[in-house]
Amino acid sequence: MKEIKVLWGWMRGHRLAMGVAMSATVVGIVFSSLIPLVNQAAIDFVIVHNPEAAGDFVSDFLLGIDGLRPQLLAAGILIVILTTLNALTSFIQGRFIAKSAEGFAKGLKDRIFDHIQKLPFMYHKRAETGDLIQRCTSDIETIRNFLTSQMVEMANCLFLFVVIFIFMLRQHVAYALVSVALLPFLLVFSLLFFNKVRAAFKISDESEAAMSTMLQENLSGVRVVRAYNNQEHEIEKFERFNQDFRNTSLKVSRISSVFWSSTDFLCFMQLTLIILFGAYLVMTGEVTLGVLQTFIVYGNMLVWPVRGLSNVLTELGKSTISVKRIQEVMDEEPEHLAEGLKQPIEGHIRFDGVGFHYPDESDGVVLEDVSFEVLKGQTVAIIGRTGSGKSTLMNILLRLYDYTHGAIQIDGMELKQISKKHLRKNIGVVMQELFLYTKTIGQNIKISRKDAKEQEVHEAATMAAVHHVIEDFEEGYDTMVGERGVTLSGGQKQRVGIARALMDKTPILIFDDSLSAVDSKTDSDIREALAKRSKDVTTFIISHRVSTVKEADLIVVLDKGRVVQKGTHESLIGEEGLYKAFWDIQDQKGGAQVG
Amino acid sequence: MAKQFAEEEFTKSDLKIWRQIFYYLRTSKRNLLLLFGSVVLLALLDTAWPQLVRIVIDDYVLAGNLDGLWEAFGMFFAFSAAFGFIVWAFIFLANLVKQEATYLIRKAGFKKLQELSFSYYDTSSVGWLMSRMTSDTNRIGDILSWGFVDFGWGILVMSLIGVVMVLMNWQLALLTIAIVPVMGLASFWFQTRILKQFRQVRKLNSRITGAFNEGITGAVTTKTLVTEADNLQEFSAFTADMMGASVQASVLSAVYFPLMMTLGSVGAALIIYNGGMQVSFGDLSFGELVMFLSYARFFFDPVMILARRLTQLQEAQASAERVISLLNTDPDIMDTPEVAAKYGAIGAYKKKNWEPLAGEIVLRDVGFKYKTGEEVMSGMDLEIPAGTSVAIVGPTGSGKSTLVNLICRFYEPTSGEILIDGVNYQERSQEWLHSQLGYVLQTPQLFSGSIRENIRYGALGASDGQVEAAAKIVGAHGFIMNFEGGYDSKIGENGAGLSTGQKQLISFARALIGDPKLLVLDEATSSIDIETESLLQQAIQALLKDRTSLIIAHRLSTIVGADLILYLKDGKIVEKGTHVELLSLKGEYHQLYTGQFEQSVIV
After folding, report:
1. Strands (E), B81-152
2. Phi, psi (rounded to 5 degrees) for A546
3. Nearest CA distance, A226 vs chain B (angstrom)
4. Contact of B318 with B7, CB cutoff 8 Å
5. What are the Cα distances from residue B43, in Å, to A184, B90, B151, B160, B302?
6. What is the pLDDT of residues A319-346, one digit of tens each?
7. Can you tell me the distance from the alpha carbon of B286 to that of B108, in angstroms, rounded to the nearest whole number?
8. Residue B492: how many other CB atoms lie within 10 Å
9. Which residue has the higher pLDDT, B22 or A594?
10. Residue A594 pLDDT more than 50?
């Protein structure tokens, strides 16, 4: 199967350990299968003194000792030695399986993590986070589990069968065949039945998930529930889910109790066959009492793992699905970050007839024929309605998307020739949907320059007008962000993001609607601080506020992916068009939003 | 948050907790009895099996009774059938007990959660409460059913086998049993450590899941900051920790099971040696020797199972304590017995006694402190005539939400009183007030289900016509009809599939449909495109008509249109009046108006 080949590929570096574990399994099975032979020899030769019974190397060894007491003592010691050896192989097996499987899981997790963070923006835009996380965690866990338990069980079952069956055949062919006669039925029956159990399990799992979802919605929506006084309604609703979960669980137990009881019956019937047919053979003189005892033990060693095999095989099915799901992610083409030119970037940028559409052309054109030029150190404002293509234009500049038409040149170099890593290192961005890592505020700010001095962090924060806010927190810059720490307001988050973007002192800066949650006073303070810091930084501003874009050297008005107006504030309010319309709305309404 | 850390502390046993848990077995008495019966039978059958083998060897084989084998077959067949039946019975019964108990605990827990006050939710996260209702309840159910089965079976089997062996041959019996305490102690030692190590692994694993989550949701940020290499290094440290802990856990198991095997083999060796001698002297029958050998092997199982259950008992006990603590929590806000008698309680409302609500609100010297002692409001006096729209503005932390929550009686004042229609609201029931309340949250909280169901949530008895009418008034009808399924379109958890503006409009319709006398609106701050924005403005005007309304306002047009504006600061009303009045004061409101409202436009 293809999945096994893929899995084998991922196992590189961990195959040897797996091989050691498997070899230990085989050796261990041989040891444990020898133990009943010692009992047998003890019974047949030592106790009953039946030298006519078929001899074996174990009995030869025991008979080589003089006297009953030493012979029995030797048999006892032999049992302990064999068990200890078996225990040792079992330890080796456990140890090496763990080494192999845990190492494999770590390697695969690291690889998929790195792979995912290098997958293109386009992929992330479409990906469902929950599903992707599931692939990285529970799917890998399913495979790891398969390697640590099911594969061992499967190997164990197989080797056990081979070794024991050989041992049995050596003793008595017909007896050996009768001793495994019911196993095929047991296997087929349990396989068929177990599928039913699993189907019922799935229904009850879904029912539990539905109950959890309802519970979770109720708890997180507690305010709504109370405000509308719908507690009774909710209690009734939960009652339905609760009952449904109970009923589907009982259905599982109804089916699985039949499964376990009928397979138990089959197992005991197989053992019965072994005992009674053996008894018959002993009485007709075909085999010895010791052989009967040995076969009973062998039977016990075999039937229970075979019954468990159905579970193992269904898990195998699950694992192949998991392998496939992970493979799908790994097959996606990642970005090649380092390839390309790495010349110093100054910040003179020219857009020349730039166009962009998504790979699926029916989604329509996002940008068309966008042309403008920004000199080093200039500030460009881009303004337009939601969906006019402003953010896409900036994503193209960052090579998060590659433009489909036209050309973009930075300092005369074609953008597509520049290494993505180098390019992004030279552009500071504050994204519209700002993301902070679960770290301290200080660590978040200096994330791209871990070696930065404390003073530099404070300077950047001061420029972003967030230094005092941070200092006011009990733990200052060491305050954790996110679930385990403070919840920052939208404006605070944006300002931390600005501070973070300023740390790298890049020649190009992009503010993608990143002052929307900051009041206009702070907004202008920040812009003033930025202007003071450096006259050489080429700056792009995307904003909802006319006041924010007003002072730009160049204002580009986008509508439906096209440049409809270009110019300075003064020139644009003089002409009829979208910009003037925005300006007018602002004038009469005086604003629609308060921080 | 504090509760999350308290979780691990519990160790000491407390019978009172279990007595309360046993209450949830009240409907399962008959099943428990049957379950106990089948466990006894199972233990008997397990003990009987080696006896059967002994009988075959001693009474048939050694006696040369070839024709009797059919008899023996009947015996074995009966045994196998009985065994199958008992297995069926105890699995089924144990699950029945488990499901019934967990069902009842969840039912009681959910009802309690519907009664508890907001202050409880302030200190307990949704995740924390979810685990009380799911994993903890499940663990309790397991120990009540399967734990009971395993304890009963383990103890019975060990005693039965012990008795049988002693009766047959006390010397061999003692040799076999001597190993048991050693096995038991070793098992307990290992199992405790294995469990602890696995808990550690689980903890590390959830950290990795968190890291994956962050890596995926922050992927674009990572790209723009070019921190891929650093991220991988950090992540790799997490997975290395996880690998180390897992390998350590597996080493414990890799030592434990072989050790048990070896200990068991010592027992078997002693039996071979001693028993073999006895057989040759004729003190022991052949079948008995074989039987002792299988008993010795069989002793493993109960010892290991009992040890595992004992370690799990500690966890189950911690679960039981947490669940009981939830069930024993009293709501902070409770109606007095007299009020409850008149107005009824959840499950038995006496709606005929509920007075209509006009909507006049009076606050007299109202103060509010958190349980921690932190004072957020004091000496507030306020009169709101029925039908007034009140806009509440002020900086973050000025007490805007507290004021609204107090008026809605989600919290009660710690001093002073609040009168609604001239009567202290504590003299009427909470549900009476809430049934006349419309409430719109800043971030609209919708439930999964259809759009229709979500709107109807505001008045469960509303007809389809009323649902549509409400949607039309707030201007949501248009976009709803644009969905393929119209009002029956399913929306995902928390309104997935709808834009923020659409969710807001639906939550407006939900508030409107009940025609509440008192409306609370926590206005959203997020910026929306201009078309939706004007829709929202119109919808708000429709909402406010003819009712007392309290708005935590962020939009200028809403504030300007209100009958009364309150400017709050540090838990006090510092300015109060209409827009024009407040502007002429040239105070805080004026500053806010000229400072922040100015020059902001949404494109």
Report:
1. none
2. -65, -35
3. 7
4. yes
5. 29, 12, 11, 8, 10
6. 888 999 999 999 999 999 888 989 999 9
7. 59
8. 11
9. B22
10. no
Q: What is the DSSP letter of B565?
A: E
Which whole number is the average pLDDT over A265-285?
Answer: 94
pLDDT in the model for residue A240 = 96
Among A465, A443, A446, A468, residue whose Cα is nearest residue A456: A446
Is the Cα dihedral A333, A335, A341, A347 positive or negative? positive
Residue B73 near residue B132, CB atoms below 8 Å: no
Query: Is A589 a residue whose pLDDT tops 50?
Result: no
Query: Where do the H-state alpha helices sit in A221-230?
Result: 222-227
For chain B, say whether A13 makes contact (Cβ under 8 Å). Answer: no
Interface membership of B599 toward A (CB under 8 Å)? yes
At residue B313, the pLDDT reads: 85
CA–CA separation, B19 and A524 (whole Å): 66
A-contacting residues of B 495-524, CB under 8 Å? 510, 514, 520
Please tell me the number of Cα atoms within 13 Å of A328 on its side-chain side: 12
Which residues lie below 8 Å from residue B237, measured CB to CB, with a gap of 6+? Answer: none
CB atoms within 10 A of CB B473: 18
Name the residue with higher pLDDT: A457 or A431. Answer: A457
pLDDT(A535) > 80: no
The answer to whether A185 contacts chain B (CB < 8 Å) is no
Q: How many CB pairs under 8 A join A and B?
A: 430
Q: What is the DSSP string of A363-391?
A: G-EEEEEEEEEE-TT-EEEEE--TTSSHH
Query: Beta-carbon neighbour count of residue A69 at 10 Å?
Result: 14
Residue closest to B520 by CA, chosen among B403, B405, B440, B412: B440
Q: Cα torsion at B444, B446, B451, B453 (round to 10°)?
A: -130
Give the C-alpha separation, A406 to A300, whole Å: 76
* CA dihedral (B330, B334, B340, B343) positive or negative: negative
Both tokens of B468, joined, read 């549509």
Give the span between the Cα atoms of B127 and B553, in whole angstroms: 31
**Which ranges of chain B have pLDDT less than 50?**
1-12, 597-603
Q: Where are the alpha helices (DSSP H) in A11-67?
A: 15-41, 57-63
Task: Chain B: give the shortest CA distance to residue A257, in Å.
Answer: 5
CA B115/CA B117 separation, integer angstroms: 6
Listed residue (A153, A142, A158) closest to A101, CA to CA: A142
Q: Which residues of A touch B457 (CB under 8 A)?
A: 224, 228, 230
**Chain A contact present for B115, CB below 8 A:** yes
Cα A561 → chain centroid: 37
> Over the stretch A36-79, which tens digit does the pLDDT of each residue have?
888 888 888 777 777 666 567 777 888 788 788 888 889 889 99
**By the CB < 8 Å criterion, does B61 face chain A?**
yes
Mean pLDDT of A524-528: 80
Could you give the maximum distance between any two Cα atoms of chain A, in Å? 120
Q: A12 exposed, middle or buried (CB, 10 Å; 0-12, 13-18, 19+)?
A: exposed
- B225-233: long-range pairs with CB below 8 Å, 24+: B225/A424, B225/A447, B225/A448, B225/A500, B226/A337, B226/A421, B226/A424, B226/A425, B226/A448, B227/A447, B227/A448, B228/A114, B228/A117, B228/A118, B228/A337, B230/A447, B230/A450, B231/A113, B231/A117, B232/A110, B232/A113, B232/A114, B232/A117
In chain A, which residue's Cα lies nearest the Cα of B461?
A: A233
With a CB cutoff of 8 Å and minimum separation 6, the contacts of A27 are: A89
- Over residues B386-414, the pLDDT tens digits come to 999 999 988 767 888 889 999 999 899 99
Paired tokens of A404: 């489909």
B356 touches chain A (CB under 8 A): no
Whole-angstrom distance, CA of residue B319 vs CA of residue B21: 11
Nearest partner of A483 among B4, B135, B309, judged by Cα = B4
Q: Which pTM value belongs to this model? A: 0.81
